[in-house]
Amino acid sequence: MDNWETTTEWQSSSNVEKQKRGENVTDENSEKWVISVCGLNCAKCDIYEAGHGNEKLRDEIIEWFGKERNEAVKPEQVRCEGCSGPLIRHWSPECKMMLCARERGLQYCFQCEDFPCANVDEFSSDGISHHERTVENSKRMKEIGIDAWIEEQKSKGQCAFCP
After folding, report:
1. Is the Cβ–Cβ distance between 14 and 131 less than 8 Å?
2. For the residues 6-19, what does the mean pLDDT come to?
């Protein structure tokens, strides 16, 4: 329960089930952006949403962990404040990129002189589709700034969770 693989495993499962039911998989609150250290939009992650008041989604996550992983997860465990929040309220408190950025006093990986580093390369090449764009997106954020990048993504109609 303590890594991005689990979050992505749940996220993918959740979206596949929604698609099977003919539901829209984009977030109804498409204006919210909380950019993570690596360049993902935390606000569109199911775990983040569940921890910020979406009780239906929280209950689905708890049920999924019970069925798919045979793990008992309490409602208060389904929470995340994103990379800039306290580690005690982070779904993946051992995230290498987040810990590295904090250690270096940075908010985003692209601010580092070593970007892209082995941690970022490993994350972006782990085979998970929305992780693949993190390096390209981070380079663009560095070039034009986060606010301009978000506006660019909105104008392109990019996936809400997969900036």
Report:
1. no
2. 46
